[in-house]
Amino acid sequence: MTFGYALAFFCFVLVVLNFVSVAIAMRRAKPRKTPLPPAADAPPVSIVRPVCGIDNFCEETLGSSFKLDYPRYELIFCVARANDLVVPLVERLMAAHPRLSARLIVGDEKVSANPKLNNCVRGWDAARYDWIILADSNVLMPRDYIQRLLASWGPKTGLVCSMPQGSHPQNIWAELEIAFLNTYQARWQYAADGVGTGFAQGKNMLWRRDVLEGGGGIRALAAEIAEDAASTKLVRRAGLKINLVDSPFAQPLGRRTLHDLWHRQIRWARMRRKTFPAHYLPEILAGCATPALVGAYAADLLAWNVPLTAGLVLASLYCGEMILAYANRWHVSWRLPFLFLLRDLMQPVIYLDAWLMDDFVWRGTAMSVREEEKQST
Fold first, then answer.
1. Other CB atoms within 10 Å distance of the CB of residue 81
2. Is residue 167 one of the residues assigned to a domain?
3. CA atoms within a 13 Å half-sphere pointing along the CA-CB vector of 298
4. What is the rounded CA–CA span in Å between residue 217 and residue 125?
5. Which CATH number does the domain housing residue 135 bear?
6. Which pTM does this prediction carry?
7. Is residue 120 part of a domain?
8. Rounded to the nearest 5°, which phi and psi values hold at 77?
9. Within a 13 Å sphere around the CA of 132, how many CA atoms are in the beta-carbon half?
10. For the chain, what is the domain count?
């Protein structure tokens, strides 16, 4: 009986922590009512965007780079191969905006097993300004994109990032990805940032050149299989902080397949397990499945109604996620609670897979956590 009450209390603690993470995300990710104007002394900024293939909404996301309300910035697109399908699109966008400083660099520098990092190296080297943004090609940049990143930079900051906020789903699997990205991953990222343990997100990274160069330069990010994990460790070694931008930037999803979503989630999980194993270990407690299972076990020991207890735990947690989505004007539909449940059924499998498996494929490139570990020893 005593053990049953202890489990019930543990379930209660997990539920409260979930609510705290929701509250933090509601405060931090609340969308602005009006765009943030650039500062009078706004520094010039270089934006480096690695591109590869044609993503959903590719013209909209890359085109948003040319529409920023900022007095002085340059665009550097980087592509590994001249015959990539995205090259004509980039060239057409540059031709349509001749007054903006924009160029396309063809050819990468293989400094690591990470093709995205390889694609960014020459762009970083070519950047003219001391403030440099590394932004994925599938980020939809708002007009105040640069100033919102700069606004999050403080005296002890070494890097400012934004996680993706899933938007524009066109099928149920894209909505399932939103269930992972927005009300789960984003809120826990903001919770970590709120207690001073923020992690880098490779989707959007604002660097000041001297910070990265002081840690060995962009090639030093090859120390880890994921450039954002290497960025996190580099900034922390310098005694600086990683800050998240208020209100994350959108990533239009379009149509997704369950196969692609599954492999993307296990890839991210395997990289988190490899690069930050101590932080990955308790990650199983962050979802809704563990509180529900703990609550159900406690109910069984205490002779309570097991299905009702588990159902109440899940209902309360999913209500919190729906409130978060409504408050932040993220995508909401009647299907989301059912997709939350599917997500939470997938998460224990993803978590276990990350401890057992090492290999994955990213944009056609075979990569292995095991190979990276061998190289580092």
1. 12
2. yes
3. 21
4. 10
5. 3.90.550.10
6. 0.91
7. yes
8. -95, 140
9. 25
10. 1
